Amino acid sequence: MAKQVQQLDRVIIRFAGDSGDGMQLTGDRFTQESAAFGNDLATFPNFPAEIRAPQGTLPGVSSFQVHFADHDILTAGDAPDVLVAMNPAALKANLADMKPGTAIIVDSHDFSARNLIKAGYETNPLEEEGHGSLAEDFNLSVLDLTGMTVEAVKEFGLSRKDAARAKNMFALGLLSWMYGRPTETTIEFLSARFAKVPDIRDANITAFKAGWNFGETTEAFVVSYEIKPAKMAAGTYRNISGNLALAYGLVAGGVQSGLPIFLGTYPITPASDILHELSKHKRFGITTFQAEDEIAGVGAALGAAFAGSLGITTTSGPGIALKSETIGLAVMTELPLLIVDVQRGGPSTGLPTKTEQADLLQAMFGRNGEAPIPIVAPQSPGDCFDAAVEATRIAVTYRTPVMLLSDGYLANGSEPWKIPDIADLPKIEPGFATELNKTVTAKDGTTTEEYWPYLRDEETLARPWAIPGTPGLEHRIGGLEKGDGHGNISYDPANHDYMVRIRQAKVDRIADSLPPLEVDDPSGRAKVLVLGWGSTYGPIGAAARRVRKAGMDVAQVHLRHLNPFPKDLGEILKKYDAVMIPEMNLGQLSLLIRAKFLVDVVGYNQVNGMPLKAAELAEAITDLISSTGDVHAHEAGPEVSTGEMETVK
Amino acid sequence: MTTQELPFPGLAGVPTNEGPQNRKEYTSDQEVRWCPGCGDYAVLAAVQGFLPELGLRRENIVFVSGIGCSSRFPYYLDTYGMHSIHGRAPAIATGIATSREDISVWVVTGDGDALSIGGNHLIHAMRRNVNMTILLFNNRIYGLTKGQYSPTSEAGKITKSTPVGSVDHPFNPVSLALGAEASFVARTIDSDRKHLTSVLSAAAAHRGTALVEIYQNCPIFNDGAFDAVKDADTKADAIIPLVHGEPIRFGALGEDGLGTKGVARDDAGGGVKVVAGDDPAVLVHDAHNPDPTVAFSLSRLTDAGVLHQAPIGIFRSVARPTYDDGAREQIATAAAGQDDHSAALASLIAGKDTWTVL
């Protein structure tokens, strides 16, 4: 039978299996193939907190969703077009997200009575027929992927278990054929990955090729698909995840400032990959210190900052809670320090592998006393690079701890990234103090030259940074209140009031260095503004596109700087009849915006550990436009199930 | 004064000063604000007198402290310094020591700061053997918070927070340090300037973490806690002097000019015991013994309750690779000949799998 090739503009595939089935690797390889092919793409890995949850159970299901297209896309997609399910649990756990008619490819091999029970199936869903069955509701393909894999790799004499483990590569091969993906990168990858175990290497490559060949020859699939490369701005691209981009951004911050990096940290999901990555790059003079706890991590980073390094600590929300006191010390001592919070579901241990944006208020206020710190948030995986460089700029220029708020969705998600030219990155000047800076006149008129560690730069209000080893500038700093200028301990009431205000003023002053906000309002007629921050950029952008496609007007502004806010934000907010703030929390930015600007914002809040869905958000935006009386507004669609629209209490 | 020639291994890499220095240069312009009679004054005076003898460039010395009475120490020295937060000084000092080989790093801490809130950082600093000298001022009480019992207070101690007596068991800081595999552990007394200085000198000479427990009297909240080792009448019996290469003898002097009491292995209990000074089994102190067993046993001769007897001196001083040297060596190896960071960064971020859009 002749195979047909059908053109598509975009496809969403979800690979799902047991956490030991290698679904993350499979998804990652498919992503790399798609990136190499030139599609725009976005990915969403979703996995359990347990390394190996009980095999075959619902909690053990791991999945990887990849959205690729011939045009610019913003999210990993709401509902998949194709589900690849490697066992009954993977099928059951993901079925609720599938629209009727979705293509589902199931490995039938593990649909034994025992595995069906483990997944909570009373009967085999693959064998059901008639109304409400899988076969009727979906475009179901039942294949013995494992059996075919074992057969294909027979020649390598592996144990049955080892042979079966290559089934993910068989599935990858099949999907690669189906969507016309280039195969070279995967073969090269497998060759390198398993170079030391030739049998395993050859079995995986063989399984991958067998999957491809099966697609080509079987009559089960008569159509393959073509998704043309996306039109992207000229440049050299790579695929990159948020944590990797963030780590590279930190390296860049070190190179651009000329400061050696000292990372003091403690392993925590989902931030540990930044430690792993930086520990590989000692050639840049990067020290990675895996401390005994979160507190020691940030303490050592602050000590290194005092000694002239770019001090960095990386963690997630629970770690920030432990580091709070040291961050306060960094506020008081006015030393540069980068604090990276890759947010995850909370409170407490919460949902370690899921995403959330609920640390904003902790970043903003989570310290004793008046302890303001700047907050910077990246908006996409690739943007983590620029956000890290920006956080470094602020920390070094203003001598302050800076919070960089990433999240689990950004950390593990990936997208094509236009590789920046190093020459275009900002140069960051540490400007260490080397000279005495104050002439002190005694009562008798004699003068002495001194070093005052708390004299401030007129423009930035930053204090000088004199590092040990600098002769004549010996000084002591610490957590007790400082006297203005000279920096000695001071309990003077008026001085404390002044110092509290000047520390706040210094952080506020950062706004002078920020560019104007970009307002995305293509028609210029929008009456509703959607304001976001962090990883919701993709879903908000995608939702705004849907709304505009339906003929309505909506404006989008996305904040990189959460503290201080850009200077033009207040004016922008006042231009719109209504402002919606979608967040993966109960309204933390809403609270700040209301407090700061007295604008009655509408929250769109979802805290289910998953990224916002563009379609649901578009509905909510449409509703708001309708209720705001926009002339273009029309009836809203069906009610949304998750993500409720509410005002902040 | 010193038993080792300058420069000390512990200070290798720290630039030395040209010409002599004096106490005045090391004294800051800040008024010292401890209570009258506080043991901290004596230690400060000893340190201010001792630092010039090291001959280091003053700007290459950093004192880091936590919170507590003794933690005000850095303000009174005209070096670089940081008065940090409660218990965290060893962590902050680890960052300084690891990132800068050319800095002599000192930590000033107390029994509450080091052993209670900061216990974790203390044991891990010693385990890693980061090159720093830790002065642990042990007054067996919380002074700055006005008199609660501390992790070194004896059981039964009556304080503001334990009106009918503490039911806590105290730490023995020397035992703790030896258990944490510290490479240098010593104990000295605030009022014995000569001994204090000699121990500080040996600690500074040591490469790695040197822990020095200083018995320090708090005249306000725990006055007399160390009288047994200070009073002329009792100290001969109370102080068990540990001097490397010398027999461990104490008590009133015998005919041979040494103490009438000695310390020997206790074969029955596995530790050490007090025997007659002329007992041939009396141990010769070996601070360099790679096996810490005897040092630990010696530390157990310290009273856990009211102090009547304690070994004083250097319990252990052994060479072991330091964390900071190891970390710097890895970087030096990786960075050798890699001067063009911009080019390396461009290559790093591009990675291997790229595609170009024209």
Ordered list of secondary-structure elements with their pairings:
The complex is a heterodimer of chains A (649) and B (358).
Chain A: E1 4-7, E2 10-18, H1 23-37, E3 40-46, E4 61-69, E5 82-85, H2 88-95, E6 103-107, H3 113-119, H4 134-137, E7 139-143, H5 145-152, H6 160-164, H7 167-178, H8 184-193, H9 198-217, E8 223-226, E9 235-241, H10 242-257, E10 261-265, H11 272-278, E11 287-290, H12 294-306, E12 310-315, H13 317-333, E13 337-343, H14 360-365, E14 375-376, H15 383-398, E15 401-407, H16 408-412, E16 414-418, E17 438-441, E18 447-450, E19 476-478, H17 493-509, E20 528-533, H18 537-549, E21 555-559, E22 561-563, H19 569-574, E23 578-583, H20 588-597, E24 602-605, H21 614-628, E25 644-647
Parallel strand pairs in A: 1-8, 2-5, 5-6, 6-7, 10-11, 10-12, 12-13, 13-15, 14-15, 20-21, 20-23, 23-24
Antiparallel strand pairs in A: 2-4, 3-4, 9-16, 14-22, 17-18, 24-25
Chain B: H1 39-54, E1 61-65, E2 80-83, H2 89-99, E3 104-110, H3 111-117, H4 119-128, E4 132-138, H5 173-179, E5 184-189, H6 193-205, E6 209-215, H7 227-230, H8 235-238, E7 239-242, E8 249-253, E9 259-265, E10 272-276, H9 293-299, E11 310-317, H10 323-335, H11 341-350, E12 354-357
Parallel strand pairs in B: 1-2, 1-3, 3-4, 4-6, 5-6, 7-11
Antiparallel strand pairs in B: 5-11, 8-9, 9-10
Helix pairs in contact in B: 1-6, 2-10, 3-4, 5-9
